[in-house]
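Every protein is a chain of amino acids, and every chain bends into a shape of its own. Below is the pair of lines this work produces for a single protein:
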Amino acid sequence: MARVESLGINRLESIHYYVRDLERSRRFYTELMDFAEVGVSDPEIEQEGHQRSAVFQAGDIVIICSEPLTDVSRAGRFLRKHPEGVGTLIFDVQDIERTFTLLEQRGGTFITDIQRFQDDFGTLAFFNITTPFGDTTFRFVQRNGYRSLFPGLKHHQPFRGGQNRFGYSRFDHVTSNFQTMAPALLWLEHVMGFQRYWEIAFHTEDVSHGSDHGSGLRSQVMWDPNSSVKFANNEPFRPFFRSSQINIFTEDFRGDGVQHAALAVPDIISTVRGLRDRGMEFMPTSGSYYDALPERLTRLGIGTIDEDLDLLRDLQILVDGDREHSYLLQIFMKDAASLYHHQEAGPFFFEIIQRKGDEGFGGGNFRALFESIELEHRREGRL
């Protein structure tokens, strides 16, 4: 297919997350993650929209959390069908009219026409569309001097809560799970204008031949070259489809949806150390991963790295890359259901990532995460 014209996306601006307990989310972001609470919904929008919201920010990362006040709210309708999770991804764009026109030409399904608002400093325009990402919608936003958060959301003065001591800077990528990902890939390509970037497929059968059970995935990363916004997309990989952790996610979430978002940091060691000191729990990594790490780094052609391997083992940080002294470091938090010991908290989690010259997705780390989640499922008696 010929390259499709860019939608003019600048970045993934924010994630709108639907929760049943807004106070729990407030504690998570401000006390554990060290985000600032920068705003809340005003009483008028709460009465009109039947939900209350709080906005959390660190660097260029913005998370909006909304709790339903009644079942007729958007949050309430979402949570009738799903556990807590991502309801909307919000993109900052260069020209809202052009983005709208291109999506209309390509068969995008619009929830709203362009809506326009004004504050004392400028204008805001946005519209929403449906997607193949289950009940997750996309919003496209253009701000021209507009300083308010969104209509109905007001800033705290001063901001409350955290100070971003861990240096979160931006969303690195978003990962979603599907029972079948082909429709999402085609939609990202033909409607959103994204291109194929990276892919991998593996199965536990690769290392345990002849087993009567196992789990596998296929993953395809799509990206927008103009903004570098990336979507990783996963589906189960035969055999043993039903025991695949990707299928288990779709059963737990009661549909396709966003599995995790990766947050970029400049110093992952200090970030993870600080988060662990605050009580954050991460997915465990087996000691064998670190036993084999020196040989893996040599085989991958990375050679030496700046970090002490014993410290990485102690903090359970993963390493991957594809050429000399070009690598990435990453770690995955436990999902919300595990953190709160409640299935309705949902299977979403955050990844922390530091890139040191490598812009890939770490095939070896992909497998390590996969095996770690599978171990958790076994501990819970779900496999």
